């Protein structure tokens, strides 16, 4: 089975906006931090790539209320949720892996999305081509494999019970280090700003960590398992690893460190 066929199978099981938004605060904060670092005067057109249910797009709307802002996402369920919650904004179903984006934008923004898109050297070239003369590209990528949890999920997926079903799932994630992005961006942009932030989420329980990643990093693995028994057993093993790697605090809370890579690139200073 080719990687593209595997992606089609997995992504045919749509994302769950309600589950995603259960951790809205944790998911939106990186968008706030990224937007706060963007320096741009009165952008006329902005596109939010991978807008999900619209939570990240609202940060852009609040910062630049006079701009034309378009939110795009490949998930029909996410776009439907965004349309219902923010009916006066523009939303489109669009898969950046296969669909072309028309027009030029002063700001191309994407929060926690491009890790699902392959060929980042080509992707960055395409994104730079969407920008106006003084346009800005602003991206955040979760460094999923830098976390104990990401490593545990990958290891569990190699168990004999699931190895055949989950083969190739890890390759659906495209995540490079900051050196890779610097080298690729430096040939396209006149200035680059990169940084990494370690977020420490304070969650109610170890189960909360499982619930938080169920709609993101864990999803493509679970989607490949055919029976409820297998899905429950896979999650049980993930939770067991969580309990070893993320200990309870004295007050019963659990700390979930989460590393994210950011970059802002500008065509002209």
Short recap of the structure:
This protein is of the alpha/beta class and 269 residues long. 41% of the residues lie in helices and 22% in strands.
What do you see in this structure?
It is a single chain. The chain has 269 residues and is α/β, with parallel strands linked by helices. The chain has a single domain, classed as Rossmann fold (3-Layer(aba) Sandwich). Helix content is 41%, strand content 22%. The chain contains 12 helices and 7 strands. The chain has a 7-stranded mixed beta sheet with strand order 3-2-1-4-5-7-6. α7 packs antiparallel against α12. Residues 1-12 have low confidence and may be disordered.
Superfamily (CATH H level) name: Vaccinia Virus protein VP39
What about the largest sheet?
7 strands, mixed
| Shape, principal axes of CA atoms | globular
Tally the helices: 12
Q: Return the structural class.
A: alpha/beta
CATH topology: Rossmann fold
Number of strands: 7
Number of domains: 1
- β-strand percent reads 15-25%
CATH architectural type = 3-Layer(aba) Sandwich
Q: Could you tell me the radius of gyration in angstroms?
A: 19 Å
**Topology order in helix (H) and strand (E) letters:** HHHEHEHEEHEHHHEHHHE
- Strand order in the largest sheet: 3-2-1-4-5-7-6
Helix content: 40-55%
**What distance separates the N and C termini?**
46 Å
Task: Report low-confidence residues grouped into runs of 5 or more.
Answer: 1-12
Q: List the quaternary state of the chains.
A: single chain
